[in-house]
Design goal:
With about 170 residues, the chain is an all-alpha fold. About 75% of the residues lie in helices and about 0% in strands. Helix 3 crosses helix 9. The two termini are about 20 Å apart.
Length: about 170
């Protein structure tokens, strides 16, 4: 939206590095989404006494799902910021981000079904595989590295793209 409103030139003239501008946008969007999800933590405390028997909620998988969701939010936010750096139009950037996120989440699962011989290898490239692993309550470094890599790659691509726009 900065390109459309003309405020991107103002950002470029400030003594702030491009990396800090992108990180500021990322953390602002990330924190906004996390704040929107905080009220859902009440469900854990409200529903826990109603289990059979009372207090029988699997807190490991619930907290793992929240942790996986934080990594998913980080990856999707960074992809969205990258897509918005590619286009002047917000709608085009949104549609592009949705398509990329959809392909990363479900596309590799569909490819794995097509190619049965190497299904597990193809499936491991998708976000769904890693999110399901974390949401079971198993915190594996491979899953964490996967999400961190996608997030950092998207943020670095955004910085690179904006540096090219700046020239």
């Amino acid at each position: 939206d900065e390109k459309k409103q003309g405020t991107i030139e103002l950002l470029f003239t400030k003594p702030i590095s491009m990396r800090n501008i992108v990180l500021g946008k990322f953390f602002g969007a990330f924190c906004l989404i996390v704040i929107a999800l905080l009220p859902t933590l009440l469900y854990i405390f409200i529903l826990n006494p109603y289990g059979m028997p009372a207090g029988n909620m699997d807190l490991g998988s619930t907290l793992g799902s929240y942790l996986g969701l934080m990594f998913l939010i980080a990856a999707y936010t960074s992809i969205g910021i990258f897509c918005s750096s590619l286009s002047d139009n917000q709608i085009v950037a949104f549609i592009l981000a949705v398509i990329i996120c959809f392909v990363l989440y479900l596309g590799f699962d569909q490819l794995a079904e097509l190619f049965k011989s190497s299904a597990t290898l193809i499936e491991k490239f998708g976000i769904s595989y890693h999110f399901k692993s974390i949401s079971r309550g198993v915190i594996d470094t491979r899953d964490l590295i996967y999400f961190i890599s996608i997030t950092l790659f998207s943020l670095m691509a955004t910085v690179f793209n904006l540096k090219n726009v700046r020239k």
